[in-house]
Amino acid sequence: MTPLAQLLEAALFSSGMPVSIESLAALDSDATPESVEAAIAELRSRYDEGGHGIEVVEAAGGWQILTRPEYTAAIERAQIASRPHRLSAAALETLALIAYRQPITRADIEEIRGVSAGSILKSLLERGLVDVVGKADALGRPLLYGTTPAFLEHFALRHLGELPRADELAVALRPAVEAAAAPAS
Amino acid sequence: MTAPPIGVRDEPTETRRAGITAAGDDTAPASFVVELAHFSGPLDLLLTLLREEQIDIYDIPIARIAEQFLLRIRTLRLDEAAEYLEMAARLLRIKAQMLLPRRDGAEAWDDPRAELVRRLLEYQQVREVVDVLEVRAEGRRNRFARTVPPAPERQPSAGPLSAAMADLLAAVDRLLRATRGPDIHAVIPRALDVAGALAAARALLARRARLRWRDLVRVNAEPWEVLSVLLAVLELARLGECVLRQTLAFGAVEIVGLEAGPGTLVGDSETATAPLLSSHDQPPAYDTAGAAA
Q1: Tens digit of each residue's pLDDT (9 = 90 or more) over B214-234
Q2: What gap in Å lies between CA B238 and CA B285, rounded to an integer?
Q3: How far is C-alpha B66 from the chain's CA centre?
Q4: Which helix (H) or strand (E) segment is B212 a member of?
Q5: Interface predicted TM-score (ipTM) of this complex, two decimals
Q6: Do B8 and A86 count as a contact with CB atoms less than 8 A apart?
Q7: Chain A to chain B, count of Cβ pairs less than 8 Å apart?
Q8: Looking at chain B, which residue has its C-alpha nearest residue A159?
């Protein structure tokens, strides 16, 4: 492997979270985004072809080293690591809304879900999956919520564009509904 | 409020749905309260009822559904699920409106169910996205990352930065080298577009609390663009709309947005009235309704 690929391997190994191309390029003053991408490709193919239990995966606008899924059951049985809890349906619904309509206020979330969202938002904030991204111009200047890189990582997304577009969903909303999507001003 | 399950849930959706139909006997009130906890809200319950009864969402027999809905929530105490009661009240109101006589052949009959249908469809879309998210989360959940404690956030050094001229020049050189190489033979004088960069930076700051230099300058930016962004960022910092942080000498500069309250904007009235949300820089419409047409 090239020295740069080795350096990147060490850096990815040192991090529990995805590392952005920029951070990787900052490792070496001679590295350019292009050379980093090439080194990542080299590292990936090395892991893919060499027979490894781990691989280099793209997520949240960066790269990270993850174990391959086929070994998860054995690892968990041996109590070496355990999978995180699943999110509740209510939390997933709230996240889906925030992902698609960000920046969105709590009132808008509650209006669509038909239930109060305060405690769910709090726990999502604590888990770092969403963050306050600003304040709306509406009365009372309510907080606006948006998703974080941790959200992308949790759902193995490279970026928000990987979520299905509205017109790709099976349920098509009628045009008359559009007014509801416009942010309240 | 015990109705919506908050926090964690370890059973997959399939069992969740199946559990509802299996426990269809509504005469067992004790088991029912637990059952309601399976739903994430009144819309979820309503949608499940429609599915169980195989009802077309655009033509809901409101009397029947309202009855079913009430049956399901009758064991709730008033303080337990205000949201379910609100929906029940709404259903009864629609039921009453449906009973009112209509004028014969009136084209402009406003279906009292229209608003409910809209909300149900909107909610159904959310459920659909949730299914996608669930599958993705499950895939990620089956892979382990290393659990390395993240590097602590470095506090910026208190004293003024001391830097030799050579270091400064080297930094400028690095920045300029990241941009497209200068074309010596075709020098076109270009005015800086500070106002444009300012608007773009503001729009980005309104959406994200923290930015990095790279977020503001596109790859292969020309020097005049880099300088425009630089001046815009300094201007934002001067106006108190953001603070600039450098945690490490010559490290990446972090741009942290501050609340642009009216009190912090002094002087320049032109920038003071700039909207917090600028529409021209929005990402493609991911909102669930916008692009549906």
Answers
A1: 888 887 888 888 888 889 989
A2: 33
A3: 32
A4: strand B210-212
A5: 0.83
A6: yes
A7: 229
A8: B283
